[in-house]
Write a structure and sequence with these properties.
Blueprint (H helix, E strand, L loop, with lengths): L1 H32 L2 H14 L4 H13 L3 H14 L4 H13 L3 H11 L7 H13 L3 H14 L4 H13 L3 H12 L5 H13 L3 H14 L6 H11 L3 H14 L4 H13 L3 H12 L6 H13 L3 H14 L4 H13 L3 H30 L1
């Protein structure tokens, strides 16, 4: 009986082989013709017969991503990478899916893994630079883009990306060269956004708002323009306009870190703590462990009498960011509330030391500027 059973399995495998390959061929044809829903169905049917097919898993992930089903796409790409962990295209596709869902740190990690296997690949390096920009790692973005500028100085996308990194890194003089390159092709929303960012850095709030309004007039869908308009409005004390600008930004990009975290600040300002906490937690899915956001959550915990939770969070913050002045101030407050006077006094001493160092540094900068 056993030999008959083995033979039956062999016969089944022989019969299934052409059927499976026919399904895969039809799935690829549908995929290439743009019929993604039917292609997805056939890829899934094929994978029931061939669950370890790297090509089918990757193609299914791509089809799902095209349909906006990013969570499912991520699952398929991860299955593909279990089969072949160093498959560069699967890594890039997974990074794109993470990027689209606002998981920027994870996208950057996958792109870093793919980069050595795809040397000097424009898509990989530009997307990775954009991830660094979104994570606030401006110097990393600049280091990635500098070699491309030497090769393609007239690439407008490069000029915009590099100019953004330079201006946000306070390298305004170099950043202005990128603005000039963009303006050679006429006034543009992108150039206006860069100019506004430079003006915000220089505390020219009125000038920044004017440029941002012009940028939005030229391109109402320009990513980050409304977020920066919100920042300018906050600086001007116009909180209603800021809230409106952040809401508009989130309609364009639901994963914009600035719009989410700043909306949280506005909700906290109005003592809408539940709404603020939800926004801060959402922003941590984009910037995991962001110290400024963790600090804001700690202040909400303190305001809502969750003192032990605030203590644990603030202790973690000062351990990981020992020069974070506000975190030390908050921790001193927590210790005094817990009647841990010795610990509170220690934190106050740290606050005095850090404050003195910052004042000394500011004085040196002022003297240097006056020379």
């Amino acid at each position: 009986m056993r030999s008959v059973f083995v033979l039956s399995l062999a016969v089944f495998a022989m019969l299934a082989e052409p059927q499976a390959e026919s399904i895969l061929k039809d799935a690829i044809t549908l995929h290439q013709s743009g019929d993604f829903p039917k292609a997805i169905q056939l890829y899934q049917k094929y994978l029931k017969l061939r669950p370890d097919s790297l090509d089918a898993l990757s193609n299914l992930g791509a089809a799902l991503a095209h349909e906006g089903r990013f969570t499912e796409a991520i699952a398929e790409y991860n299955k593909a990478l279990k089969i072949q962990p160093r498959n560069p295209q699967a890594l890039v596709n997974l990074a794109l899916a993470y990027y689209k869902t606002g998981r920027i740190a994870e996208a950057a990690e996958k792109l870093e893994s793919a980069r050595p296997m795809l040397p000097h690949n424009r898509q990989v390096e530009f997307l990775l630079a954009d991830c660094h920009l979104r994570l606030g790692d401006y110097k990393k973005a600049i280091a990635l883009l500098d070699p491309w500028e030497k090769e393609k100085p007239d690439d407008l996308a490069l000029s915009y990306l590099l100019g953004t990194a330079l201006i946000r890194d306070q390298q305004t003089e170099r950043g202005s060269l990128s603005i000039d390159r963009i303006l050679r092709h006429g006034d543009s929303a992108e150039a206006r956004l860069l100019m506004a960012t430079a003006k915000l850095n220089a505390r020219d709030i009125a000038g920044a708002r004017e440029d941002l309004e012009k940028a939005i007039e030229l391109n109402p869908q320009l990513p980050e323009a409304h977020a920066y308009l919100g920042l300018a409005a906050v600086s001007a004390g116009d909180f209603e306009a800021a809230a409106s600008a952040f809401r508009t930004e989130l309609q364009i990009d639901p994963y914009n870190f600035t719009a989410i975290s700043q909306s949280g600040m506005l909700e906290k300002r109005d003592q809408h703590f539940d709404e603020a906490l939800s926004l801060f937690q959402r922003s941590l899915t984009i910037h995991p462990g962001d110290p400024a956001v963790e600090y804001q959550i700690a202040t909400i915990e303190l305001a809502t009498n969750k003192v032990e939770e605030a203590r644990r969070r603030l202790e973690m913050l000062v351990r990981d960011s020992p020069r974070f002045l506000e975190a030390h101030v908050g921790l001193a407050t927590v210790y005094y509330r817990l009647r841990r006077k010795e610990d509170g006094d220690r934190e106050r001493a740290i606050v005095r030391q850090l404050t003195a160092e910052e004042e000394s540094k500011a004085e040196e900068t002022k003297k240097a500027a006056g020379k």
